[in-house]
Every structure is written in structure tokens, then in C-alpha cells.
Amino acid sequence: MTAAEFWEERYAGSPKVWSGRVNPGLVELTAGLPVGRALDLGCGEGGDAVWLGQQGWRVTAVDISTTAIARGRTAAREAGLPDDRIRWVAHDLTEWQPDQEYDLVSAFFLQSPMELPRREILHRAAASVAPGGYVLLVSHAAPPPWARGGHGHHPHHEATPAEEVAALGLAEGEWDVVLAEVRKRDAVGPDGQPAVLEDSVVLARRVAGEAGVTAQLRGLEPIFHRSPRGSGREVFEAMLASDFWEVGASGRAYDREFILATVTQRYAEGTVEAPLEVSEFDARPLGGDTWLVTYDLDQDGRKSRRCTVWTRTPQGWQAVYHQGTLRDA
Within this chain, do residues 242 and 314 fall inside the same structural domain, yes or no? Predict the structure, then answer.
């Protein structure tokens, strides 16, 4: 029997395998994280994926069982989530490759009695975490008490936190291990008996190194002469903080509403900007998620020195302040 056949038989043989509720550890350990893109590995019937979607995450939920995926999709619709909030993928994780970067990768109890190249799966998943993003791995650290009775538990390898960190293949210097510990939780066995279970819990954050942040900000600048990557006014507006100010080369200050009105008029008139040449680009941290960007800008022979203060928010990068100073040609 293949792994796909095993899990499909298990899900198809019961109207409901899991409770449908979110894992409490996911709620606790993601509290306060900026909402973004999430990957749920081995999502089962979608309890975690649906909860993430309800919090505003854009979720990719992957499981080997087509029945489990169908139930997850139904649960999302019954929860009132739009169809594009969760992308449901029925695929064998031994073959599936992440196709984008994620701000959160979670895997709860990705353990199987069938042969599973777990290290390779986890290594690929961790590699898909975006700078500043997190990987959360929760696994059985010990078999449940009822396993001795021969029911309610499939045999598999229980993992220590150290083994789980190693399985993720976290490159030295690129990750901060926030926690790696065994946690206990209350549970109820298949015959209604109370029990205390032990889980290995690992939470790690991918460090957003200066080179990575510089590349991100270089892709956004200069936003004050043309929309980023040809997008419209709405994207430009989303990139300006509510308290944004600009100081022009003349020394005059402009608030956010003035800048937006100017850009709106530019779009309405179809103004064609002269080619921009950026040089001497530099980005440096000011503390926390705030960065200072400086560069020289040459627009049709008109040269200026520019600086922008950016801050990273749950919605993405936003400009707080911008200033331009004319330079001699």
C-alpha cells in the first residue's frame, strides 16, 4: 500500500477524522505575528488552515489525501471565507515543491507510519520562508498512554526538539531559534480517558539580513516619480504611511494628501516620466523595522540626492518620510 492509499483509506473510511478545531499551539505561537502568506504542511481536514484564513492569512494548504482536501475546502466555505483565501493542494509532499515564499510555514504532527522522507520535506519547506518569516514545527515527543493498548495511535518515530531543529536544516547565521522545547498538553484518549501528552515544539525566525532588506527596498525606490513596477495609484497609496511627509528640494514640506493628489493627477493626465537613473544606493537600519534609504537620482539631467525612511508593517513596507536635495549637474 502506498502512502497516498493509506491516508486516503483512513480519511474515506470515516466521516470525520479530526475535530476541525485549530491546534491551540498555533493560536498561541502566532499571536502578534504580522499577517501574510502561510503554508500548512499536512493540513488534514483544514482546521489550522481555516483558522489562519479567518485571521487574514493567505494560506496554501497541502495534504496527500483528496478526501481531506475536499473536507477542508468545504469547511472554509462554511466558515464564510472567500475561495481565494486558501489554496487547497492535494499532493504528495514527497514530490510537492513550494512555489513561493511564505511568512509562516507550519507543520503539526507531520509524522506517518508510512515511509516518509521527512527531513527533505521540512528542509524544502524551511527554505521557502521569507526573510523575517517563521517556521513552526510541532511533533509528538512521546507516544500517548493509550498506544500501549494497541489502538488510536499509529507507530512512528517520536522526535526531540534538537532532532526537529536538525531536520529543518536551518543554515547557521540565517535563523534565530525562538524556542525548541518539550511542552505538555491535556488530551482525551479514544476511550475517554484523560491524559497528558508531550510535544516537541520548534519555532524559528529567518533573519532578514541587511542584504535581503536592501534588495527589497531597492525594488520599491524611487516611488515618488513613478508607481512601483508599473502598478497603479492604489499600490502607491498603500506604500505611504498615514503620517507621511515629504520635503522637496526647495525646502517646502508636503503631507500625504498633497502627494496623493499630485500622483492622482499625474495618472489622470497620463504623464510620461523621463527615464530614471539610480546610483549610490544604500539602506541601513535605524532600529527595529525602520530603515533609511539614500541614493542619487538622475532624471533627464536633473540630479538630486534622495533619502527615504521606510518602516515594515503587517501590510508591507511603508514610507514615513522622503526628502530630495538638488545637486550640481
Answer: yes
Instruction: Kindly state the percentage of the chain with pLDDT values over 70.
Output: 84
- Give CA–CA dist 217/220, Å, rounded: 5
CATH number at residue 196: 3.40.50.150
- Per the structure, the complete domain to which residue 12 belongs is given by 3-207
At 326, is the secondary structure helix, strand, or coil?
strand
Give the strand pairing for 37-41 and 102-108: parallel
| Spatial separation of the C-alpha atoms in residues 182 and 54, rounded to whole Å | 28
Mean pLDDT of the 160-181 span:
88
Question: What is the pLDDT confidence band of residue 328, given thresholds at 50, 70 and 90?
Answer: low
> Based on the domain organization, do 41 and 105 belong to the same domain?
yes
Pair 81, 53 in one domain: yes
Residues 162 and 41 in one domain: yes
CATH number for the domain harbouring residue 307? 3.10.450.50
Question: Which residues contact residue 244 at a Cβ distance below 8 angstroms, ignoring those fewer than 6 apart?
Answer: 255, 256, 259, 318, 319, 320, 321, 322
Shared domain for 184 and 227, answered yes or no, is no
- Residues 169 and 230 both lie in one domain: no
How far is Cα 79 from Cα 73, in angstroms, rounded to an integer?
10
Domain count for the chain, please give it: 2
pTM of the model: 0.62
H/E stretch holding 282 reads: strand 276-287
Cell of 68: 481531506
User: In this predicted model, what pLDDT tens digit does every residue of 175-228 receive, in sequence order?
Assistant: 889 899 999 888 777 767 788 888 899 999 987 667 767 877 887 776 555 544
Q: Which residues neighbour 178 within 8 Å (Cβ) at sequence distance 6 or greater?
A: 134, 203, 204, 205
Q: Are residues 124 and 264 in the same domain?
A: no
CB of 282 within 8 A of CB of 295? Answer: yes
More confident residue, 301 or 306: 306
What does the chain come to in residues? Answer: 329
CA–CA distance, 144 with 157 (Å, rounded to integer): 13
